[in-house]
Design brief:
The complex is a heterodimer of chains A (78) and B (202). Chain A is mostly helical and 78 residues long. Chain A has helices spanning 4-29, 36-45, 52-76. In chain A, helix 2 (36-45) packs across helix 3 (52-76). Classes of the chains: A mainly alpha (78), B alpha+beta (202). The interface between A and B is medium-sized, with 30 and 40 residues.
Chain lengths: 78, 202
């Protein structure tokens, strides 16, 4: 019994460590369910103070992308 | 009372309605929240999170729940960073493992920061370094002389927020300016995370 107790304690400690490692791995492996654009859109539409700048930046970005698409489309036309 | 008034004034000053919508905050709906952790938040953080020692702020806009670690003009950082704020946004009642998180930094500078001068890096426990991206700056109504008072905003990756909850030290840099999240501010971050993740009623 005297030798069994330390062995059990060591086993319990080892199990605990393994669980923590798995938990940390799962946290690191977590993936965002929303894209950066979707997140920015939600933040821009919120009443978070000062976050309106995110909406303005998105508008500029979207307008730039639309312009580039129009240029690309025109370049493809015969 | 003065703290609540300052907060309400700050929120209303900075919450400009966007085109086609009215996104202002009714200060009467702002609550102080200090929720206890739940199984979901512990699981997502990778370890049990003790009940935060400080309160966060919560308010509801129609169906959207918002949790902010503090008001925009509270001193929640160390100079030269005046404010460090984490906000969570989630739709509808109930637990939200996928709430959207935004980090905001408030500082004064001679220019409105952009590009590399607004590049956000977060370092957890002096070991895990994450380059988050360039923050977006907006000027507050409190610029004086050549000092532009500005609020910088950036969405945070979900996994970074989860790791942040288990970290004992959160630091980083905005451009060439280093910062450390004070322990009391980190406590309010945890209240935000638990509030959003566990679906605290507002």
């Amino acid at each position: 019994m005297r030798t069994l107790l330390p062995a059990l304690l060591l086993l319990a400690a080892a199990c605990g460590t393994g669980t923590n490692t798995r938990a940390t791995d799962s946290v690191l492996a977590a993936r965002d369910t929303l894209t950066r654009h979707q997140k920015d859109s939600i933040i821009a539409q919120s009443a978070v103070p000062g976050a309106n700048v995110v909406g303005r930046a998105m508008a500029v970005q979207d307008s730039g992308a639309a312009h580039q698409a129009a240029v690309d489309s025109a370049a493809r036309e015969p | 009372v003065s703290r609540s008034l300052a907060l309400a004034a700050g929120l209303l000053l900075l919450a400009h309605p966007a085109a086609g919508q009215s996104n202002t905050i009714d200060s009467r709906n702002i609550q102080r929240v200090r929720p206890a952790s739940c199984a979901l938040s512990d699981s997502l953080a990778g370890r049990p999170i003790p009940r935060p020692g400080r309160y966060a702020l919560g308010w509801r806009e129609v169906t959207v729940n918002n949790f902010a670690s503090d008001g925009p003009f509270s001193l929640t950082g160390y100079k030269p960073i005046d404010g460090i704020i984490l906000t969570a946004i989630s739709e509808g009642p109930g637990p939200h493992p996928d709430a959207v998180y935004a980090l905001q930094l408030r500082l004064k500078d001679t220019v409105l920061r952009d590009g590399g001068a607004a590049a956000l890096v977060i370092i957890l426990d002096d070991t895990l370094r994450t380059e988050v991206g360039d923050m977006l700056a907006s000027e507050t109504p409190f610029s004086r002389g050549n000092k532009i008072d500005q609020m910088l905003t950036q969405a945070l990756p979900t996994r970074l927020v989860r790791r942040m909850m288990a970290a004992t030290k959160v630091s980083g840099s905005i451009g060439a300016t280093p910062f450390t999240v004070p322990p009391r501010t980190l406590e309010t971050f945890r209240a935000v995370f638990i509030g959003a993740t566990c679906g605290e009623r507002l």
